[in-house]
Write the structure tokens for this entry.
Amino acid sequence: MATSIARRTGHGQTYAVLGWAVAYGGVRLAWSVGESPEFRQFGSDLLGFTGWWSVALCLAAAVLAVALDRVPTWRPVLAGAAWAVTGALVAAAAILLPELVGFLLFTVSPHFDPTAFASRLGCVTGAALLGLATARYQRRARGDCPDCCRTGRPGHRRTVPARWARWAAYAAVTGLVVRFAAQVAVGFDGVTQNASVIGLEVGLLLAGALLPLALVHGWGEVWPGWVPLLAGRAIPRLLLLVPGFGLGVGIVAYFGMGLVQLLSGSVSEFSDAFLWVAMSAYCVLGLGLVAGSGDYHLRTRGACEVCGR
């Protein structure tokens, strides 16, 4: 029963990726063959993977989704290729991060382009679907429990954060400190001080300091005693996992693409030395969040009723 349900779920994820590839890939193909909309702010809706490259990404996602569904055994190269295409899709839509932050702060840029925003959302949707299909393939091909597909010794569950996760969390905090130290070194004269920028800075402080530490300490699982009304209660996992994975991946994609553009000689009002330090620090912050969130997920997920893992 569990195996048949897993198969139907896997087929459904494959069809979802194929449907996305046909729909979104069709739009990219039409824009590549004919005339694409005029995107004024950045000249394109996506970064790096524009024109026929975006069509190739959609085609690659479709082919990989079918392969993930058909290959019965573990193939690291296949999984690596699928994760690489997933990462490329996220990186292509990296501009989505500041736009979503703007929405959260109830501020919209005067250069906001609804068509570009919708295109980036479509690109990220494909990344999410392919990522889910890849994760399911890993569980199915590497696990030995027919119900949860997990590995490890039955009945054994880890409750203490892994050492590498702690180091990743502290590295994330260090990245935040280095980023703001670099800003202090060059000064704040060129930084626009308005409500949205101040809100973004406060959000970065919370995401870069509290969130990484909460992922690897006990107060990230149970509300501390100083929190009114909630003290002693369990913290919902998604309250940390959604911003942990979401911000982590978004920060790495956005500032990683910024580093790529810096290598290509893009022009900025800031010095190259400052940009290298600041963007690299942000990437360290994002990677630390992703690593800490991964360990938090593995450590706090519910036990399988069949194998006890």
